Every structure is written in structure tokens, then in C-alpha cells.
Amino acid sequence: MSFRFNFSSEELESAENDSTVRSSLDNYDGLNITGKQPIPKPFIPPRELVLNNLNDVLPLTLIAERIFISTCEQSILYKRHLSDVKFQVAQEDNFLETNYNENTRILELAADNDIVQGVYEGGLKTWECALDLVEFLSKNTDNLNFEGKRILELGCGTSLPGIYILTTKNPFRVDFQDYNEQVLKLVTIPNILLNTLLCPKTEDFSNGTAEIDVPECVNLLDQLKRSRFFMGDWNGLIDTINLDSEQEKYDLILTSETIYNTDSLPNLYNVIKHSLKRPNGIALIAAKSIYFGVGGGVLLFRQLIEQDKVFGIKIIYNEKAHVKREILILSFLDCLA
Ligand SMILES: C[S@@+](CC[C@H](N)C(=O)[O-])C[C@H]1O[C@@H](n2cnc3c(N)ncnc32)[C@H](O)[C@@H]1O
């Protein structure tokens, strides 16, 4: 089943062109269900993406745009422009000539749908709650104290919250998970490099974008090897992450706009529950109060957590937009007692 959050391709393009992104996404008006025929839900099994070289991942140049964060001292994040992703994929198509490229399929799906359930889960664009989460993190760096912490961003897509932490303090490690391998390769990894090693300068920008050369050097791979990357479904992900001891578990789990699908809520919750470190680990969940058309949202997620009685929940951010946006913090109940 495919969904569209009431945007045309042009609107999505212009959202990507807008360096603040947020304004055009504020018109969110719910889901359009475009596919009426039930189709069997495919399942991409979870696995770790191990990077041994970047030749088949990175192009020679990247086009970056800026995301201005209103609240923090390091007030700009960089993200790969969607047009650049399209350009890379078109070039690969020319090169392959005969083979239909899996990247092309994901881009075609993303042009017409926000999400195609079980096939493409929306990771190529930045969703507005991701920016709420970045702003929240930037206002609370002292309270959250990322130094030496193990952090995981689930359903990362363009990964701005995880990358924000990677660039500001000195975390032990920030790991990233997305449903689609293509999303990790086309946006997550380039965005990490743009914000850590490639770092465009102000003078590189003209008309809102900067073209940055990607050098062939081992530093890039070294930087990426500081993180682990996981792809595929949340169902079974805990076995793939394979955290043997409490010490290896995550101090902080971040996730944004991932609780829209009622079917996958229990699996997402399970990953959080089993990979968060006791007793002090916390999870930050940024989401809309309801996702019209698919039924998920904050209310349902809260019910799931309250029934399980493992975590306490607090709403720590509440933006009264047309559809309310919230950030929840989960912490272990036995720690709160
Ligand atoms: C709407 S996108 C949000 C992307 C990003 N967090 C943001 O806010 O910009 C939802 C993300 O959740 C992840 N996701 C959705 N369903 C999933 C599932 N069943 N298993 C694993 N990941 C899933 C995908 O990785 C996808 O990128």
C-alpha cells in the first residue's frame, strides 16, 4: 500500500530546495492512500551494512544544502540535496545501460509517494519532527550530556538528529538504522561526511547549494567505521545488533516520524526495550500526534508502552501545529522509582 502526505512532487522538490525545509512541511494535512489494492507486505530482513570501501557508495562530488538550527551555537547542519541523489542515480543508470538499478526504483517510488509500505519507508527526505528533535537536542546538550555515550538513531533517513550529536559533543559512538539500504548509501552516509570531514564553507554556497569534492582518502572510511549501520526491518534487528552485555547497549535512542504504522509499532518498541541500557538509558521519540490514513501516532504508541509497564513516558516538547508534533522521552520505570 502506498501513501502520500498531500504533497505534489513539485512541492517536495521545493521543500528540498528550501534551506529551512520546515515551512513548506508545515502544511501537513494527513495521508492520502493512493493504492487501494491490498498487496502482500514485503519484508526486508535486517542486516548490518559493513563498509570496506566507498567506491560504490560515494560520487566524486556532493551537492550540499544548509539546514539552519535556530537554537544552538553550531547553528548549521549540511545535508545532501535530493537533486544530487537523482543525478548520481541517473549516471549509474547510464553506466549500467541494461540493468534496472534498485536506486532508480526507490527514487521513482519516492517521487510519487511519501511511503510505500514495506518497500520504501520515506527515508530520502527530511521530515519535520527530525528538525524538532535537532532543536530539542541543541537546547539540551548540557542535560543530556552526550560525551562518551552510545547512541542509536532508528529509522534515520537523512539522520540530522544523530548527525547533530556526532558533530557537537564527543559521543562514544552514534549508530544508524534505516529500512532501505539505498537510503543509508545515498543520504545517511553522505550527510555524515558532509557534517564531519567535508564541511562546506560559507563561501562555497551559491543559490543555497555548494558543490563539494569528495577526496579519495582513508579518513572518510575511518570516520564511517566509527558508526555501525543497519538496514532492513525492525523485526529481528536486536539479533543483528547483537548486544551481548548491558554495557554495550545504548545510552540514548533517537527516532523521528517512525510511529505512523500500527503494524510495526510493536517491533520498533521491542528494539528500544531490548537495546536501551538499564537503568539510565533514555529514548527520544519525535512524532505527530496522529498519522491520518494509517492510524499510528503518539496516542497508540503511548498505549503500547503504558500496557507494558517497563517505561515511564513524559512529553517534553509540544508544537501546536495543524497536526500536533510532540517529543516523548522514555525512561525505565525501575529507574524512576
Ligand atoms: C517517515 S521516515 C522518517 C525518516 C527520518 N527519521 C526523518 O524524520 O526525517 C520513516 C523511517 O522509519 C523507518 N522505518 C519505517 N518502518 C520501518 C520498519 N518496519 N522497519 C525498519 N525501519 C522502518 C525507515 O527507515 C524510514 O526512513
UniProtKB/TrEMBL annotation:
GO terms for molecular function: protein-L-histidine N-tele-methyltransferase activity. GO terms for biological process: methylation. Transmembrane segments: none annotated. Its EC number is 2.1.1.85. It is found in: Cytoplasm; Nucleus. InterPro entries: Methyltransf_16, SAM-dependent_MTases_sf. It comes from the Eukaryota. Signal peptide: none annotated. Its main location: cytoplasm. One of its GO terms (cellular component) is nucleus. Keywords: Cytoplasm, Methyltransferase, Nucleus, S-adenosyl-L-methionine, Transferase. Coiled coil: none annotated. It holds the Pfam family Methyltransf_16. Belongs to the methyltransferase superfamily. METTL18 family. This is protein-histidine N-methyltransferase. It comes from Glomus cerebriforme.
